[in-house]
Design a protein that fits this description.
Shape of chain B: globular
Largest sheet of chain B: 5 strands, parallel
Helix content of chain B: 25-40%
Strand order of the largest sheet of chain A: 12-11-10-9-13-14-17
Structural class of chain A: alpha/beta
Order of helices and strands of chain A: EEHEEEEHEEEHEHEEHEHEEEEHH
Number of strands of chain B: 16
Distance between the termini of chain A: 28 Å
Number of helices of chain A: 8
Distance between the termini of chain B: 73 Å
Strand content of chain B: 15-25%
Helix content of chain A: 25-40%
Oligomer: heterodimer
Strand order of the largest sheet of chain B: 3-2-1-4-16
Shape of chain A: globular
Radius of gyration of chain B: 24 Å
Radius of gyration of chain A: 18 Å
Structural class of chain B: alpha/beta
Strand content of chain A: 25-35%
Number of strands of chain A: 17
Largest interface: A-B, 42 and 43 residues
Number of helices of chain B: 16
Chain lengths: 277, 471
């Protein structure tokens, strides 16, 4: 059992929890994730490590409530316990001095982009960050990203804050204005990562994405998270989660992510009905 | 004149084994309850009485953990069931599991003398009977040796790891088992379906092992959370690696990443470990369409096919590239599957998968195969027949063509010798290239059986004990 130490709401349906998990906190590295199972009947699902504190023995996660599993997690309060948390899983990000880097977070993906931006800054890079959301109230970690970035750009789909449009539009403008980047990190919904990849492809800028495939065990056993990268099947859980954006078959990834839409809807309706009763 | 006693008539051997009651095929294909129901006391007695109690028993040589088979059967004959299970447990701490999933026909029963004239004694069913008899009444836990002060880490709570754990605990060592998943049992929990091995039985036998003081830490992936060198630094005197063959093998043909195509591992993990058959009561979903194809001919293929039927598929077809004779699955499992209505398509192999606009599989192209000369495995090699491609409509596919070793330990343990296939190099006692580090089961042999992993575990436990006591 893994106790929740603190819980905060960052935006509507977006929550932050700090969990007591000393062994994971001891070994966590940037870019890695954990697999959670909230209760006895729960699914196993991955969340990226946003922060960790070796001294306190805690890890921090941020999630958007979309389905039954994340809604169940969101209902837990401080001092409640999560049944299972396993990790750290996946390969760490390759953090070193690249020069000028752009870190892009879309939606709740900003939570995964933040530790990477922070580590890249600590490694001496010039960090330009772009974060985006549907609207201003859904933007997260603006202050945190601002603190560790040399420049922070914001976009919202509805124009309620920053530039109206997508993060990929902001990136395109920056490049066109003459910004040069040695590396780009983009984390968010698959469509957003694909859009970023298409912006950087003509300029041949190395672009890394962290894939949010469906996972079950998260340790290489099932292959639910398989994705075609450079024409080869790779497992996001053990070969990734980070891959070269220009080689990822996003079309396949998006279709695989939608495989259980019907079931997810059914489960959510059932869960909401039961809660009403 | 003294009376001469008449020579005793030679006891007539009952040639036919007492059959085990089973759920009827038309009933069982609609539920996940156990198919085989087990012997009653009377049935067990009748079957035990078929055992000749050979002075030089042949059966024992077929048992990877060397159970004294005639001795435990003799106790059954005498209705001393508590003595019988004690005898079994001298060598095997997971008898209810082994009685269900061991391929006895290739092991102990293969050597049974009566097998030459009729059915061999159903040793597996008798083992299951005494194990169930005891479990239903509560376990007797024998005493542990006094504490040695030595500490051993076991990686993986599958058949090999659990066997090593209980044996070392009995010797008086402190044992911690690290399990990556959220439940112990390994393949017994995530791989073998409920209808063949109820999870409550796995749980009960794991609990029995915990009674010996074995600590099991779930959600703990060695190689990521801690590495083996870290375990040795953190005060463990020895390490046993029993991480099994857990990585799925795919066909590597076009379209294999379409939705609706599962590795057998994913399919079975969803069904068994995550209880997707009880979705939406349980949160993990699974998609099973009307027409299911299972690729492969082993026990895992049978388990997948039979699970698919129970999940409501209208038609389940096993597609196997060789013929029935070469199928690696147990005969009993093939028969069970066929009784339930699973169809087998032999001498065919998928060449590509075709999807719809949503990216879900809708058809599969296969090619017919011919059998050529035997390959290294001794089975005739399948050869594609040119121009024989045909299309099968399918909406779910399960790829059950084998599993390979999990590489996480090998990648994170410097100095550990590994073969080209990714298995760990170990001698017959499980000793690896690193001092104090032992390995056994599928991680050493490649994909094999539960009982061979347990046999390897027994040998490794003995070797680890000797190593610890010499230090």
């Amino acid at each position: 059992m893994y106790k929740i130490i603190t819980k905060m709401e960052l935006a509507p349906k977006i929550k932050l929890i700090e969990i007591h998990a000393p062994e994971i906190a001891e070994k966590a590295q940037v870019g890695q994730f954990v697999i959670l199972r909230v209760d006895e009947k729960g699914e196993r699902f991955p969340l990226t490590l946003v922060d960790w504190d070796y001294q306190k023995g805690t890890i921090t996660l941020i999630f958007l409530e979309v389905g039954v599993s994340t809604k169940k997690l969101g209902e837990l309060e401080s001092q409640d316990e999560i049944l299972d948390v396993a990790g750290p899983l996946g390969n760490p990000s390759e953090i070193r001095h690249y020069g000028s880097v752009c870190v892009i977070g879309g939606g709740v993906g900003t939570a995964s982009a933040y530790p990477i931006a922070r580590a890249l800054k600590e490694a001496g890079n010039k960090v330009i960050s772009i974060i985006g959301a549907k609207s201003a109230d859904l933007l997260i970690l603006e202050n945190e990203m601002g603190r560790i970035s040399d420049e922070l750009h914001i976009s919202t789909d509805d124009g309620t804050k920053g530039q109206k449009g997508f993060v990929s539009d902001v990136l395109k403008l920056l490049i066109e204005k003459g910004h040069t980047f040695n590396l780009i990190y983009a984390i968010g919904p698959a469509v957003m990562m694909r859009a970023v990849a298409e912006v950087t492809r003509p300029y041949n800028i190395k672009t890394i994405v962290s894939l949010n495939s469906i996972m079950v065990d998260g340790m290489g056993m099932c292959g639910a998270c398989r994705v075609t990268v450079g024409g080869e099947t790779r497992f996001a859980c053990v070969d990734g989660p980070e891959f070269d954006a220009h080689k990822v078959d996003f079309g396949e990834l998006i279709k695989r992510q939608m495989m259980y839409l019907l079931e997810e809807k059914l489960a959510l309706e059932r869960w909401e009905n039961r809660r009403r009763v | 004149m003294s009376a001469v006693s008449e020579p005793k008539p030679k006891p007539k051997v009952q040639k036919e084994a007492v059959s085990m009651p089973k759920q009827k095929p038309e009933v069982r294909k609609g539920n996940f309850n156990e198919v085989a129901l087990g012997y009653t006391e009377e049935q067990a007695l009748a079957e035990a009485n078929r055992c000749l109690q050979c002075p030089k028993p042949q059966c024992v040589q077929g048992c990877p953990v060397e159970i004294d088979i005639p001795a435990f059967i003799k106790f059954i004959k005498e209705r001393k069931f508590d003595e019988a299970i004690k005898k079994v447990k001298e060598k095997n701490s997971l008898p209810a599991i082994c009685g269900r999933v061991c391929p006895q026909e290739d092991q102990c029963q293969k050597f049974c003398v009566i097998g030459k004239v009729g059915d061999p004694v159903s040793i597996g069913r008798l083992e299951r009977f005494v194990a169930d008899w005891e479990r239903e009444r509560g376990f007797n836990v024998s005493e542990r040796a006094p504490s040695t002060g030595k500490k051993v880490a076991i990686i993986g709570a599958g058949p090999a790891g659990l066997t090593v754990a209980v044996d070392l605990a009995k010797f008086g060592h402190e044992v911690v088992v690290f399990e990556a998943l959220h439940l112990p049992g390994g393949v017994l929990m995530y791989g073998i379906p409920e209808f063949r091995l109820p999870k409550s039985i796995v749980q009960a036998e794991v609990d029995y092992i915990k009674n010996f003081g074995v600590e099991i830490r779930t959600d703990f992936l060695i190689g990521r959370t801690y590495t083996i060198p870290e375990l040795l630094k953190k005060g463990f005197d020895s390490v046993f690696i029993g991480t099994g063959a857990g990585l799925p093998r795919f066909l590597r043909v076009p379209g294999e990443n379409l939705g609706g195509i599962y590795s057998a591992n994913e399919f079975l993990i969803r069904v068994n470990l995550m209880k997707a058959y009880a979705f939406p009561e349980y949160d993990t979903p699974i998609r099973v369409g009307k027409k299911v194809a299972v690729i492969g001919g082993g026990n895992v293929a049978m388990d997948s096919a039979r699970s698919a039927l129970r999940l409501g598929a209208e038609e389940v077809c096993i597609v196997y590239r060789r013929s029935r004779e070469e199928m690696p699955a147990r005969l009993e499992e093939i028969e069970n599957a066929e009784e339930e209505g699973v169809i087998c398509k032999f001498l065919a192999n998928p060449t590509k998968f075709i999807g719809d606009e949503k990216g879900l599989v809708k058809a599969m192209e296969c090619i017919c195969m011919d059998l050529g000369p035997p390959d290294k495995s001794g089975r005739r090699r399948p050869v594609p027949v040119k121009g024989s491609e045909f299309i099968m409509d399918v909406d779910t596919v399960v790829v059950a063509i084998g599993r390979t070793p999990n590489p996480i330990i090998q990648r994170t343990t410097g100095g550990l010798e590994v073969t080209g296939w990714g298995t760990i190099v170990a001698d017959e006692n499980g000793k690896t290239s690193i001092e104090g580090v032992y390995a056994g089961g599928d991680i050493v042999t490649g994909e094999a059986t539960v009982i061979s992993a347990m046999g390897a575990g027994k040998k490794a436990a003995k070797a680890i004990h000797e190593y610890l006591m010499k230090r």
